[in-house]
Amino acid sequence: MSQPAKPSRANSSTQRLKMRRDIAAAAMELFATKGYEATTVDEIAAAAGVARRTFFRHFRSKEEAIFPDHDDTLERVKAVLDAAPPHEYPLDTVCRGIREVMRMYAAQPAVSVERYRLTREVPTLREREIASVSRYERLFTRYLLGHYDEGAHQDGDDGPLLAEVAASAVVTAHNHVLRRWLRGGAEGDVEGQLDRAFAVVRARFAGVGQPHGPVGLGGEAGAPAVLTAGGEGSDVLVAVARTDAPLSEVMRTIEKALKKG
Questions:
Q1: Neighbouring residues of 139: CB distance < 8 A, sequence distance ≥ 6
Q2: Of 31, 75, 153, 159, which is most buried, counting CB atoms within 10 Å of its CB?
Q3: From CA 119, how far away is CA 64, in angstroms rounded?
């Protein structure tokens, strides 16, 4: 007699996520009707139709229960970074990665709006949300820092510093767009708003994660153009700029470099 087929890893993961979301939905409904402090884990488990031990298999506490997707989303973000093509600008990879977080919220807009309301009202939930966001920021910082060798971590080299600041800027830009979208009832073109926010970040942190650091001769930290001279005594200045960098910023950087020359 043939043995029954074992559930695939993908199916198991889908079932796990569905269970987490069901428990989270029950928790949010109780928090909204009874209040966060008055709601117990036993009540959440009962409302979700699961045993108390099942609840604790999925969540460590009741405040964690309203963030069911962050663990899986973090893994998807890691997958984006791990699979990045070698020629891709590292900051672009980070921006692609954090889009997975926005898609998590956009997949259930009504739930996301209610969760946003709860986190604004309950300090404990807000702290939990901040802790979740910090995991993405640490991941992006490690990724950008990974594009510098040990020799880059010497005194006077601002590359590692800019990598950390750039990672924070990407997360901040994402959260700024997300909060505005949620306050507006999760309506509007959130992807378009995210594109504009990332363009601002790219313009300010051009070159971060590149092999030779974020700036060249005559450049400035966060400048939209990387400048190099043609050699000692040369009258040639070469500028490399991103196509999405504001022309006015590129010209201002070149003008400053020429004046210094």
A1: 74, 77, 78, 81, 97
A2: 31
A3: 12
Task: Quote the tokens at residue 62.
Answer: 């009741």
166: Cα within 13 Å, side-chain hemisphere: 36
User: How far is residue 252's CA from residue 154's CA, in Å, rounded to a whole number?
Assistant: 29
Return the amino acid letter for 140. F
Lowest mean pLDDT segment, chosen from 5-19, 25-39, 235-249? 235-249
- Span 157-190, pLDDT tens digits: 677 788 888 999 999 999 999 999 999 999 989 9
Report the distance separating Cα 168 and Cα 183, nearest Å. Answer: 22
- Cα 66 from Cα 118, distance rounded (Å): 9
CA distance 258 to 261: 5
Contact 155, 190 (CB under 8 A): no
Using one digit for the tens of pLDDT, what is the confidence trace for 76-99? 999 999 999 988 889 999 999 999
**How would you write the chain as a 3-class SS string?**
CCCCCCCCHHHHHHHHHHHHHHHHHHHHHHHHHHCCCCCCHHHHHHHHCCCHHHHHHHCCCCCHHHCCCHHHHHHHHHHHHHCCCCCCCHHHHHHHHHHHHHHHHHHCHHHHHHHHHHHHHCHHHHHHHHHHHHHHHHHHHHHHHCCCCHHHCCCCCCHHHHHHHHHHHHHHHHHHHHHHHHHCCCCCCHHHHHHHHHHHHHHHCCCCCCCCCCCCCCCCCCCCEEEEECCCCCCCEEEEECCCCCHHHHHHHHHHHHHHC
pTM above 0.90, yes or no: no
